[in-house]
Amino acid sequence: MTPLPLTQTRALGTTGPVAAAIGIGLMGMSDHYGAADDTESAATLQAALDAGVTLLDTADFYGSGHNELLLGEALRGRRREDIIISDKFGLLRDPAGGWAGIDHRPGSIKNFLASSLRRLGTEYIDIYRPARLDPAVPIEETIQALAQLVRKGHIRHIGLSEVGADTLRRAHAVHPISDLQIEYSLFSRRIEKDILPTARELGIGITAYGALSRGLLSGHWTPGPAPERDPLRGRDVRFRLPRFTGENLDRNLGLVEELRVVAEAKGVTVAQLAIAWVLSRGADIVPIVGARTRERLAEALAAGDVELSPDDLADLEDAVPPGAAAGTRYEVSQMKVLDSES
User: Which residues belong to any copy of the NADP-dependent oxidoreductase domain (predicted)?
Assistant: First the structure.
């Protein structure tokens, strides 16, 4: 299946770049969702670029560098000016693939960036962002360090990820923030209360990851036994997330079936409906879709041509009211340290 070409573009805030309306998140090609096929991942990235996708989201800790190497290889022979690399740093990994803390010290940021530039095979990163808030380093200090890298031309824009409204204001007061990367979907709407209005007040765009709620809203997820877990690449963290376990999963899959009724009446898939809903939330929002195969990519990009009428939006609100999803989006221990949830 050949992906439809993307024709719409959206600006990432008042100071950020202009991107195609749907971006691709690479995380699942290296980490967190079980073993991936490098050959299919590479083919999917090439298909995405051929279809006009411009925003590609990665992180130096996805697969402990594997993800950046995968992206760097995909970009060989492509016009660098046509690509928007969104990269994250700051989360530390240990040799067994576990997590070893957060580090946003200015010297560490320079070190992370130097390694990322080498793996990506580029002289600059378009949007560089801390993946989480480091409680040991004031956000002002982090942004000042990133601003120096902007002035030196190593990065073009500063982004943030999973921070709350107050942190967003403090950061933006030091240097313009292009966009906030944060989970936003029919199942995750908390940002609508304070974070989204603050971002809009400040002219900060939203790159909405989790548009399909890690596959729950894809319409393809079925419960099953947890896969055998490889120390680095074989683990699927979703089997530990509250929304994917027990009665929560049953409740959430029931909501998906309600969405399927709406989708079938409109002649689209559940995934396309869910992505189209995120697109409908404003021209300052770019959904990030974690397609790992060309088939799923083609399905996702077709959502760019789905128009939702007021009646369609009302049907979606009836099918999945705000707060209807059962279970938190991360494990309880992680929810407690997310600045966006404070």
Answer: 21-319
